Amino acid sequence: MFANNRFYGWIKRFCSLLRTMSGCVLICLAPVAAISQSTSSTVEQNMQPINQAATQQNIGFRKGSFIAVPVPFSNPMIEQGLAIGGAYLFQADPGSDTSMFGVGALKSTNDTEAYGLAFSLSFNDNRWGVSGSYIDADANYDLIGNHLTIPVRQTGRLASMDFRYGFTQNTSISLLTRYLETNVTSNNRLFNALPAEFRPSLGFSTMSYGLSLEHDRRNDDIYPSEGSRFRLTGLYTQPISGQSSDYSKVYATYDKYVSVTDRSVVAFRFTGCGASRQTVFYDLCSVGGTDALRGFNSTQFLDNGMVSAQMAYRSRLGKQFGYVLFAGAGAVGSSIDDLDRSGSAGGVGLRYRLSKKFPVDFSVDVSGNDRGENLLYIYAGQRF
Fold it and tell me: Which residues touch 365 (CB under 8 Å, ≥6 apart)?
């Protein structure tokens, strides 16, 4: 039932930070156990963040824009659904990224539902920034082991607050804080046979603290065509209630963008992740979760160590339409130097530009993996 006596059946997050989408903020709530940190996950990409939107000519809070829109989504974890949200976007000064206040909700065909609110503020030429969110979710999904699938229901609340200081226009450090309260239940008889740490049905809560170092030289935050971005994050988590031990996690992501023509760009992403032996199952490294790789359910490859690489070719077919070709591979194991399970996937996607003011696309991707499985993704923005 388990590989290497570990349970490989948990998606990486319970609910993601609120995200803005198609020029507005919608809640991106990953439908499962506890959120790790603000790295990308499969479901998180349903509402691609626009916290750092393209520079606007109108500066100041009163000269911002309010946008609200419903957007359908599809992903392997919570099936299909609709997200509805709104946000107020503004730019505090010419040298700072776009700030926002947002609220939203989502519901999917497997009865997953969630709501929340969020804010993200940047000011003083990006020298200072603060963001926060609150999310309440009721999620249904499957725990996936070797030749075993166990349906579970998980409810929970997440509150987070991050503080950022910029050393330069491109380099910053952030203090991360997160409180999670969650509960997991299942009607499947096999669920009760799992070790206690994998079924915290009596309730479970944690408090996390971390630091994140980022160096961002992209020419655009929403649709970059040149430059690179590197982010290194370390997170320490301690239990407040429930059966768990203190644990730590470190992960890094490097994105690179190269223009091919005026209308096309090649994007690369490399991801590495390591978690301590005491890490609870929902905070482990995940292919498709930690790295946003398309082609696998986020519960399919989950362990203490992970590496992955992926690339995408994006091209515009005029002002409204575009397409993308993508491929990637990832591996997990008990540590980064002991990776024993891997998978590869690729696919194609269509893009439709949603906003004249922000370069945000409505995205439909079809992927296939080396196991003969096909998955559909519908979301806003790019995967990376």
Answer: 294, 324, 326, 347, 348, 349, 376, 377, 378, 383
